[in-house]
């Protein structure tokens, strides 16, 4: 990455969870509280009229967002990443790189029962409106079985929220 010099320490906030967990609601609240930049691939995809189920496009957008986030962290900014970050490996990589840049890193993991997630996803109907199809209960069950929920050991690797 260009400009590797760290000018000031920033803060990275990872907002993680399944669809319908409340990531966007929390990330918007934190954006105001922290005077932060919020990076949400769903919104970029919607603005660019890209199908929300286009995983290749999502990966490319997240790569662009991560390059932007790293630069903002170098400049002492606060960045909220709202990617879901379902795997421990992804959360570890983001945390480790942000720490290399001198940034504090918070993890906000949102977890709700499947019935709550499904009710929210069904009510918002975002994927059908902005993607090629609606999410199904089977999708949600598959996602719930796939996500790697952080345990106490992993949570201890992150910084506490500022007081």
In short:
Helix content is 50%, strand content 13%. The chain is of the alpha/beta class.
Task: Summarize the structure in words.
This protein is of the alpha/beta class and 163 residues long. It has one domain (11-155): P-loop containing nucleotide triphosphate hydrolases (Rossmann fold, 3-Layer(aba) Sandwich). The protein is 50% helix and 13% strand. It has helices spanning 23-34, 41-47, 55-74, 88-100, 114-124, 126-130, 137-146, 152-155, and strands spanning 11-16, 37-39, 78-84, 104-109. A four-stranded parallel sheet has the order 2-3-1-4, sandwiched between helices. Helix 2 crosses helix 3 (55-74). The radius of gyration is 16 Å and the shape is globular. It starts with 10 loop residues before the first strand and ends in an 8-residue tail after the last helix. The mean pLDDT is 91.
Number of strands: 4
Strand content: 5-15%
Broad CATH class: Alpha Beta
Number of discrete domains: 1
**Integer-rounded radius of gyration:** 16 Å
Overall helicity = 40-55%
First CA to last CA: what distance? Answer: 32 Å
The assigned CATH architecture is 3-Layer(aba) Sandwich
CATH fold annotation: Rossmann fold
Low-confidence segments, ≥5 residues, pLDDT <50?
none
What about the largest sheet?
4 strands, parallel
Average pLDDT score: 91
- Write down the secondary-structure element order: EHEHHEHEHHHH
Q: State the CATH superfamily name.
A: P-loop containing nucleotide triphosphate hydrolases
Instruction: Please give the order of strands in the largest beta sheet.
Output: 2-3-1-4
- Write down the overall geometry: globular
């Amino acid at each position: 990455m260009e400009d590797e010099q760290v000018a000031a320490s920033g803060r990275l906030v990872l907002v993680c969870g399944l669809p319908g967990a409340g990531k966007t609601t929390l990330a918007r609240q934190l954006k105001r509280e922290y005077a932060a930049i919020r990076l949400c691939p769903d919104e970029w995809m919607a603005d660019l009229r890209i199908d929300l189920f286009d995983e290749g496009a999502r990966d490319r957008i997240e790569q662009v967002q991560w390059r932007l986030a790293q630069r903002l962290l170098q400049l002492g900014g606060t960045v909220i990443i709202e990617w879901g970050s379902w795997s421990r490996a992804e959360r570890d990589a983001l945390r480790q790189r942000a720490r290399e840049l001198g940034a504090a890193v918070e993890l906000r993991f949102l977890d709700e029962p499947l019935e709550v997630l499904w009710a929210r996803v069904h009510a918002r109907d975002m994927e059908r409106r902005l993607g090629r199809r609606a999410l199904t209960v089977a999708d949600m069950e598959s996602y719930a079985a796939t996500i790697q929920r952080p345990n106490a050991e992993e949570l201890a690797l992150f910084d506490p929220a500022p007081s």
